[in-house]
Amino acid sequence: MYIPNSNIKLPENPDTVVWKYLDLSKFLDILLSGKMFMSRSDKFEDQYEGTFSEPTFEEIKKISQNNPKFLDYYKSHRENVVVSSWHTNEYESFAMWQIFTKNNEGLAIQSTIGRLKEALQKERHFEQYIGEVNYIDYKKEYIPFDDAFFPFLFKRKSFQYEREIRVISDVTAHNFSINDGLKIQVDINTLIEKIYIHPKSENWYKKLVIELVERLGFDFEIEKSDLESDILI
């Protein structure tokens, strides 16, 4: 269940469109399990995930002089924060297809901020928050540490193209031992508004995706990619 947090920014319009680009195996896992994977924050490719900008680190070092455990807590905290990443965009993104899918195969789930909020189911041990990622200069800009999520909603400016919205949870208080991440319950029919199949995929692949979705009893719209449109001359 989504929990509002006044410290976390989020687009106000519930109809703001969000996307998740993924391969077929991950998509089928969502459909079959009714769960969405959230990755451990220190397992992302970007090694700066959950770390501090230089001005923030300097302030934290001063605090840690009298309380060494303060810095140790933030170092270990990355292992207890899990994230599901979504891309904000009115239209599908050619760049996202290239980055998150391979071999001209894959899918994009289209949803909205409102659907994402509504789709999250109440978890017994922890709560989910949704926040907009801020892109800053890590050498110059300060990251305020208002709450436990502060470093996890900031990234370097070189990642601005991601336009990321995050579902984020902290399992610190529950002594979970998580490897790469964990799965959370979601309402599939609420979460998924439409599906787009990779614009360069073969016809057999498109037919396979359509048949799998039908056989599993789902009826959400499967759209032709806008990047596949006919050339007009």
- Give the biggest beta sheet: 9 strands, mixed
Structural domain tally: 1
| Helicity range | 25-40%
N-to-C span: 50 Å
Mean pLDDT score = 88
Helix-strand string: EHEHHEHEHEEEEEHEHE
Strand content: 15-25%
- Derived from helix and strand composition plus strand pairing, the structural class reads alpha+beta
**How many beta strands in the DSSP annotation?**
11
What would the principal axes of the Cα set say about the shape?
A: globular
Round the Cα radius of gyration to an integer and report it. 19 Å
Number of helices: 7
Q: Can you tell me the residue ranges where pLDDT is under 50 for at least 5 consecutive residues?
A: none
SSE map:
Blueprint (H helix, E strand, L loop, with lengths): L16 E6 L1 H10 L1 E6 L13 H13 L2 H9 L3 E8 L5 H7 L6 E6 H7 L9 E4 L1 E3 L17 E3 L7 E7 L10 E5 L2 H4 L2 E4 L5 H13 L5 E3 L10
Parallel strand pairs: 6-7, 10-11
Antiparallel strand pairs: 1-3, 1-4, 2-3, 2-9, 3-8, 4-10, 5-8
